[in-house]
Specification:
The protein has 745 residues and is an alpha/beta fold. The protein has 21 helices and 28 strands. The strands form seven sheets. It has a six-stranded mixed sheet, with helices on both faces. A five-stranded mixed sheet has the order 1-2-3-4-5, covered by helices on one side. A hairpin with a 4-residue loop joins strand 25 and strand 26. Helix 5 packs across helix 14 (355-368). It is globular. It binds beta-D-glucopyranose. Beta-D-glucopyranose binds at residues 89-90, 151, 198, 277-278, 407.
């Protein structure tokens, strides 16, 4: 009995001890930290408060703030009221909580969030207001989950259509990129949360991303790959930036003096913090000196990080001064004050997975759908006399919120295309569903061998005979067939680039056979990156493009198919006929090996196709509507301008069709007389305008003449060449409707 009592008492004491230890490990609440902070009685002035805090910190405490102390937090100093810096991905909404020391889900039941449309989709709206809506909405969700930093937006340029993260990035065009990035960042940061703009920089491929050294000329860097990052810092005042995995001109991006110190801080005046991509750090002293502030990483003991014990050792050995370390700690404290994480009064509390946020996701999805082809006017679907619809394809039911290598979202709502149609089609219409193709991947080990350059998933392209039969039966027995093809987030994924542009899983054959038995077939692609649609384009009259489109994606898509929403999405990249037509492939400069040289230079995306006169399958900026738009009366407010002037371009946009709709008027500029190489044309303005059926709107786009500048390598500056420039307005890069000339003096 006595023994039993002793055992029980010891067990209770042991449990209490564990509980107590857990208590210690758990970070203190915001309230506790505020109390501690208050008791320090520091100055109201933030700079002075920061100086006092740093003066009170030990070397270990300082260095504790410079590295991850869990998978998604960096260290705080509880005794001084400094919280951990809490981060969250990312690209599709607030990531589910994962364990502190591994990628395993934390297994919570309160970490559900809105699944937002991926960036490719946002870019296809060509609507900066929606980018702001997204930033504001996802920023609120991040706050509701108690975060300080959102690891977004991802704004690398889409250099190759094969890029595994194409769906996560906006576009191939630097102007569209910056016009979407800035409002997104403003939307997020107004919620007392900082963005982390990634992946800085030239992280344009997943193949060898951890080692590849990216080389290009300075002009290309400045004109194509940096503008959105620069705007993120100088215009949107982003508080943090993520250093990329790869190297640039010989140095890793997390220890790249030129990029982090010279460009980011000295040129652009960045005052925030640089956080490493996960496990992208390779040195202690060099990283810190060259501009990195926080090292984050993948599972290993956190004290072994380069900016942890090895940095303490380096400091003790005099390889780095405490003053240098203080500089980085001060930057971190500064951004923590900015987002009110330290001692914050009235910090935004946010909200998550609300109907309002699902509506935001819907609005973006609805404007992102791109109508590629409507030759028989099958769309919008005519409901009169329609009694049955075959819904064919694994993608009709496929969910994409959680999948692949990259960060996903745990959500209670992801309306699939099939569910969307069920929700929106009138009751009496029968839906005949057939899976059509199977999503299968080859397990062949040869596919992963060293000599294979690209290691993306290998799909099995044979159709299953029974599934095909079922699909043909459904198509035969229905008035209309809708095939949902394309890919998914297991096939398009972070950490690998796709091997080719082919439609996977036998879809080409499926589409062809279904159309043979039912010519009233609509093909809907669900994908985040270009595919080779040449073959199916030959025999498909109706083609729609949708994306990894968030919680409400299925409803938005059904509304477009039924005409409740008039499509207004435009491609944010070029859909080539063949991958060999694309610049990085035509110049045989992808994916490189130890190094990759961007041989196409400034001619990225449509700049290449237009300059080299290569026909794409679907051009940049392309997308149809259920109505027709006419552009006329293009003029500028003057004929001659100085390089510092604003050029006011105006025109009339008429909706001459039968339904209301939105058109994206696109402004391209050519400078054929230039003394230096220039692309045939470059996007320099755009406006999405709603016009009622039969009505006309006066549209004006202000084009700062400085947007016409090119980067002069010798003088290391932007120069606007005097001369004649053509200003063109169009409905896509290949559908230019009107042009005028102006002279820059
Ligand atoms: C990605 C980042 C992401 C980080 C944390 C990395 O693999 O490149 O974009 O934010 O993981 O999940």
């Amino acid at each position: 009995m006595r023994n039993k009592i002793i055992f029980i008492t010891t067990t209770i004491a042991f449990i209490a001890l564990i509980a107590c230890n857990n208590e210690v490990k758990k970070s203190a609440t915001e309230k506790d930290l505020k109390e501690v902070f208050k008791s320090l009685e520091l100055s109201e002035n933030i700079d002075e408060a920061i100086d006092s805090l740093v003066a009170k910190m030990t070397l270990e405490e300082k260095i504790g703030m410079l590295h991850g102390n869990s998978m998604f937090t960096s260290g705080g100093v509880e005794r001084l009221g400094i919280p951990e810096l809490k981060m969250t991905d990312g690209p599709l909404g607030i990531r589910e909580e994962i364990s502190r020391d591994s990628w395993a889900p934390a297994g919570l039941d309160n970490d559900f969030a809105t699944y937002y449309p991926a960036s490719g989709s946002v870019a296809a709206t060509w609507n900066p207001e929606l980018s702001y809506t997204l930033g504001n909405s996802v920023g609120q969700e991040a706050r509701a989950r108690g975060k300080d930093m959102l690891l977004s937006p991802a704004i690398n340029i889409i250099r190759t259509p094969l890029g595994g993260r194409t769906y996560e990035y906006f576009t191939e065009d630097p102007f569209l990129n910056k016009k979407l990035a800035v409002p997104f960042i403003e939307g997020v940061q107004q919620n007392d949360i900082m963005v982390c703009v990634k992946h800085f920089a030239v992280n344009n491929q997943e193949t060898n991303r951890g080692t590849v050294d990216v080389l290009m000329d300075e002009r290309t860097l400045r004109e194509i790959y940096l503008p959105a990052f620069e705007a993120a810092i100088t215009q949107a005042k982003a508080h943090s930036v993520m250093g990329a995995y790869n190297k640039f001109r010989g140095d890793y991006l997390c220890e790249n003096d030129y990029m982090l110190n010279k460009i980011l801080r000295d040129e652009w005046g960045f005052e925030g913090i640089v956080v490493s991509d996960w496990a992208a750090v390779h040195t202690s002293v060099k990283s810190l000196k060259n501009g990195l502030d926080i090292e984050m990483g993948t599972p290993k003991p956190f004290n072994e990080f380069f900016l942890a014990d090895p940095l303490i050792a380096a400091a003790e050995a005099g390889e780095i001064s405490e003053k240098e370390i203080d500089k980085h700690v001060k930057r971190i404290l500064n951004v923590l004050f900015k987002v009110k994480a330290i001692n914050g009064k009235d910090r935004a509390q946010g909200s998550i997975a609300t109907e309002a946020h699902f509506k935001d996701a819907y609005d973006i999805a609805a404007e992102s759908v791109v109508l590629l082809k409507n030759e028989k006017n099958m769309l919008p679907l005519k409901l009169d006399g329609l009694s049955s619809v075959a819904v064919i394809g694994h993608n009709a039911k496929k969910k994409n919120a959680l999948a692949g290598f990259g960060a996903g979202v745990k959500t209670k709502r992801e309306v699939t295309p099939l569910e969307g149609l069920k929700n929106k089609l009138p009751q009496g219409i029968k839906i005949n569903y057939a899976e059509g193709y199977l999503e299968r991947y080859s397990k062949n080990e040869n596919d992963q061998k060293e000599e294979v350059t690209l290691h993306g998933p290998v799909p099995v392209n044979e159709l299953d005979a029974d599934k095909l039969e079922e699909a043909l039966e459904a198509a035969k027995n229905s008035d209309v067939a809708i095939i949902f093809a394309g890919s998914n987030r297991d096939y398009e994924t972070e950490a690998s680039d796709r091997r080719d542009l082919k439609l996977p899983f036998g879809q080409e054959e499926l589409i062809k056979k279904v159309i043979e038995v039912n010519p009233n077939t609509i093909v809907v692609m669900i994908a985040g990156a270009p595919f080779d649609l040449q073959k199916i384009d030959n025999y498909t009259a109706t083609l729609v493009w949708s994306w990894f489109n968030g919680s409400e994606g299925g409803n938005a898509l059904a509304d477009v198919l039924l005409g409740t929403v008039n499509p207004s999405g435009k491609l944010p990249w070029t859909m080539p006929k063949n991958i060999e037509d694309s610049p990085a492939h035509a110049t045989n400069s992808f994916p490189g090996d130890a190094t990759v040289t961007y041989k196409e230079g400034i001619l990225v995306g449509y700049r290449w196709f237009d300059t080299k006169n290569i026909d794409p399958l679907y051009p940049f900026g392309y997308g149809l509507s259920y109505t027709d738009f006419e552009i006329s009366d293009l003029k500028t407010d003057k004929e001659n301008y100085d390089a510092t002037d604003m050029i006011e371009v105006s025109f009339t946009l008429k909706n001459s069709g039968a339904v209301d709709g939105k058109e994206v008027a696109q402004l391209y500029v050519s400078n054929p007389g230039s003394a230096v190489e220039k692309a045939a044309q470059e996007l320099k303005g755009f406006k999405k305008v709603f016009v009622k059926s039969g009505a006309s709107e006066k549209v004006s786009i202000v084009l700062p003449a400085k947007e016409l500048a090119y980067y002069n390598e010798e003088q290391k500056m932007w120069l606007v060449e005097p001369g004649t420039y053509k200003i063109k307005i169009g409905k896509s890069s290949r559908d230019i409707v009107n042009e005028v000339s102006v002279i820059i003096r």
